[in-house]
Structure formats: C-alpha cells, structure tokens
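Interim report to the steering committee. The following record documents the input for Sugar ABC transporter permease (353 residues).
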Amino acid sequence: MKDTTPTSDTASRRPTPAARGGRPRRRKLTFDRVTFFLAFLGVPLAIFVTFVLIPFVQAIYWGMTDWRGFSPDYTFVGFDNFTKMFQDDIFVKALRNVTLLAIFVPLVTLTLALGVAVAITLGGPSKGPVRGIRGASFYRIISFFPYVVPAIIVGLIWAQMYDPNAGLVNGVLTALGLDQFDTFAWLGETSSAMPALMFVIVWGLVGFYAVLFIAAIKGVPAELYEAARIDGAGRFRTTLSITLPAIRDTVQTAYVYLGIAALDAFVYVQAMLPNGGPDNSTLTISQRLFNVAFAKQQFGYATAMGVVLAVVTLVFAALVFLVNRLTGGGDSEGKTKAPGFRARRAAAKGGAQ
C-alpha cells in the first residue's frame, strides 16, 4: 500500500500568508465578531471613559475655579490654584512627605515580603527536593493576619501602642532597660513621627505581599532550583539569579500598588496623626486636600490638589515601568535560567542527536 502521509518537504511547500505576498488576509466583520468586540471591548471601554476619564477631566476643570462646594456660583480662575498650591509651604511639605513614603514604604515592604516568601517556600533542607520550611501554612496565616484587620483599626491600635504614658511600645522598651523611652512620644516628635508611621504601614501591608510572592514563587519550575543546587548556588544566589527574574512582573505590579497606597496613606495617617503630626512632619496631600475642602470650603483649590496627586501617582507608575524596562524587565528569554542549566540542556540535546 502506498504511503500517502505528507512528508516534511511537502508540508514545507504549502503556501503561507507570508509566501503569498504579504500580510495575512483580514477577516470579515461578521455579526459574531462585532458583538464580541462590543461586549468585551466596547462595554469596558465605555465604563472606563464614563467613570475614570470624564471625572478626571471634570476635576481638572473644577480645579481651575474658586468653587466653594455648597454654592452653584463660581468663577473661572485658570491656573491660579495650581500657582498658589506650589507657593503654599504646607502643601510643599505634604508633597515631600508623600515622596518619602513612596520611596521607603514600597522598598522596605517588598524586601521584607520577598524575604518571608523565600524563607517559607525555599528555606527547607538543603538536600533532597526543593521545598519550604516545616509549618509553612502556619507562617503564611500569621504573616497575612495584619492585612485582614482594616487599616483604620490598625492605625487606632498603634496610636494607643505609641502612647507615651501607657503605650505597649514604651512599656516593652522600659522593661528591657531602655529607661530613656519611659515617656517618649513617638508620634509627638518630629524626628520619630514619620518613621513610626512608616513602620505601621509596612506592618499592615507586608503580609499580603508575602502571600502574593509565595504564590508567584510556587509557579517557578522546580527544575530551575534543582539545577542551581547541583551547580552549587546558595540560597542568596538562587534568589537573585532565579527567583527575582522569574517573579519580576509580580514585583513590578506590587511596587506600583504599594506606591499608590503610600502616596495616599490617608487612613493610617488620619487614624494616628489627624492633625498632620508635629510641624506637619507626617501631613499627606490627601490630608491637606481634606482639610482645605471641608474645613475651609475651598473645593476648587482642593480639587486642584487632587489633580496634582493623580499626576504624581501616574508619574510614579511610569517611573517604575521605565526602570523595569531599562534594567531588562522586557527580556523574557532566558531570564529564569539557572547557572549552567542552559548549557547542560544543550549538551543533553547534542548527546541525544
């Protein structure tokens, strides 16, 4: 019987869209395709335009007025509110404070979260299969617990713990022999208010991102870690060469979300330091906006502050994506290869041939 199975040469001679002279033929717009695009692209786009773009454009317009919030009368003042804003020493200080929060809170939180995630998932025995430490589920629950508590409750609890007279923090430090902290006002000193606030924000968020990184590390192929172990790479080297490149996109997304949370941080600051701290050392833009709008009834000026905060947030996100791109974040080929793993795999293929 004659074999009619097409050979590779026959298959290679089949005309392809590129071989026929160019671009692939466009598909016709059928009813199914049109309804698909309307349902899965048109509806989300309409929602985004209605509830995101249009309100943002309106905010820009109201930020150029002297609207007082409770009256239909207002006057268009152009960029006067924005000029006044950057001549306001209190707003400039609030902008500096949120910049510090956006720099240190994501960096510290993600570093601690990554350390916890690596210890839980890869911190097991150095021999045998790569696995996490014993009781990993228990540690995941413990690390995630602070995130379950609402941010306002976390702020109120830590405000009591920082109390200079009856707070737990000073009580523990005094019991350890540090008598200089007997009546130390953590939230009442300019030098300690911002670090104390940052600590609370990190404490409240680190558990969530630890669990996020644990899930991401679980998706890394175990053969990469086993190859690195065979090559003699230690845990620190494995983390830098395999874990971080493999979960790079997750870290980037987490950094953006954490930066947005830090730039706002309204709930934590309002619960612990409702007046902006000593000498406005912890005042944020959202706090300043709230006070200007509802205490001074300058809603046009407050809206201009909101626009600036939105722009700062967008710039922060763009910087994170830019840094990730410049450091090789877009190169997906070979970024999760363990030391020597690619060479051994190539050698194995050569021997098989």
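The CA atoms of residues 119 and 342 lie 26 Å apart. The committee is asked to note this result when reviewing the revised timeline.
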